Every structure is written in structure tokens, then in C-alpha cells.
Amino acid sequence: MNKWQADLFDVLREMHTEQELANRIGWTATELGFDHYSYGLWLPLPLSCPAMECISNTPIEWQQRYRQMKYAQVDPVVLHARRSREPLVWTDAVLDRQPALQADARRHGLCSGWTQASTNAQGMRGVLTLSRHAPTLSAAELVHKEADLRWLAYMAHLFLSNLIMKRREPQAPVALTDREAEVLRWTGDGKTTGEISSILEISDNTVNYHLKNAVAKLRAANKTSAVVMALTQGLLAR
User: Fold this and answer.
1) Confidence label for 171 from pLDDT (cuts 50, 70 and 90)
2) Where residue 111 sits, what CATH number does that domain have?
3) Are residues 69 and 122 located together in one domain of the fold?
4) Fewer C-beta within 10 Å: the chain N or C terminus?
């Protein structure tokens, strides 16, 4: 970690609101040669219809246009970030796949950019995109800046994802007992009640008792949903 990266970590760690963090990310993006930033966090639930929460300083008109045209469903930058944590430099080869989106973005001053997805300890994925009116990053510029760009993407995800999830789940954190967590882990591994009772040397009724308590604490619909919710909240880590 170089001094610039260490300083950025120290500064972001002391910020306690999304707006403070967003402003600093925007300032750092400018320092690295970009006009705008966009941070998106894929929410862990519901699994069947994942949504993304976004924070951005791109022009409001562009944000409205992007939503109106449902560009997130076809944006090659977003599709790349969903399946890879490798950074992506916007090139014609990438953007030409969606010429209407590309033309719209350029009309709003987003002519070139850089995108990086990150995953936090709970497995939630976020993506930082830096964009600008200037030409595509050259190979020389990328070599000079890539380590700092990657660090900014990771720091943005680390701190913003934490604040966003706290805002979305303001209730007191769930506290599972050791046995409830253990039963959910085995359930997540596909074990039946009978198999779990044999593994843990407890009765079927006791297994079901712990499952019922965990489901109630997590306000889940059933034990499968409880496993998913516990995983997304980091409650099953050993």
C-alpha cells in the first residue's frame, strides 16, 4: 500500500454518511482524471429479482434517461461487472455492442471510462465506474493509475456498502445462538432434519426447535429463506 492509498483509507474510514463518502469519491475521481463516478450495490435480496442501489454524480438528465430506457439490462459495462471482478476499460469494441446507449452516454459527456466490481466479506457485489469526456485511457495512463483505481473501487465498496445496508436495515442486528447458526449451516449444506440430528447427536424435535427460532428471529418465510438471509448478514461465518 502506497501513501496515497493509505491516506485515502484513513480519510474514508473517518466518514460516517453516504454523502460525505460520495463527495470524497467524486473528489478522488477528479484527482485521477475523471469527471464523474457511479457506484452501484447489488442488494442481496430478493434473489429472484435482484435490485441495485446507486449513488452517482453523473448528470441528472443522464441518470433519468438511463432508468427510462432500462439501459441497465443491456449495458455491457454492467453485464461485465456482474460476472467478473476484473477491471474494464471502455473501448469501442465494448460500447459498440449497444450503439444507442453509447450515443446517449456521449451526448451527456460520458465518452470514456473505467469500471471495477468488488465483493465484500458478506459476498455482496458492488461496482464503481469512473467516466469522463476525455478520450479512452491510454495504455501508459492505465499503467500509471491502475493500482490507485483498483484501490478506490475497493474502498468505495467497503465503506459505501456498509452504510447502505445499515440504512436499509435499521433494526437491531439479529443474534443467532451458536446452535441455531450450526443447524442453519447444515441445512444450507442440504442436510435433512434427521441427518442433522444424527450429526449433532440431538433429537429431531431439538433440531426443529432451533430452526423455528432462527426463522422467527430472521423474519424469514421458511428455513431455506432463513439460510439465505443469515448468509447475507454474515451470521454463519465461523
Assistant:
1) low
2) 3.30.450.80
3) yes
4) C
Q: Averaged over 116-142, what is the pLDDT?
A: 91
Q: Which amino acid belongs to residue 43? A: L
**Which grid cell is 185?**
449451516
Name beta bridge partners: 196.
Answer: none
173 preceded by a cis bond (ω within 30 of 0): no
Q: Look up residue 81 and give its three cell numbers.
A: 461487472
Q: How far apart are the first and last CA of the chain?
A: 28
- The predicted-structure confidence for 137-151, as pLDDT tens digits, reads as follows 999 999 999 999 999
Domain co-membership, 75 together with 131 = yes
Pairing relationship of beta strands 125-132 and 36-42 according to DSSP bridges: antiparallel
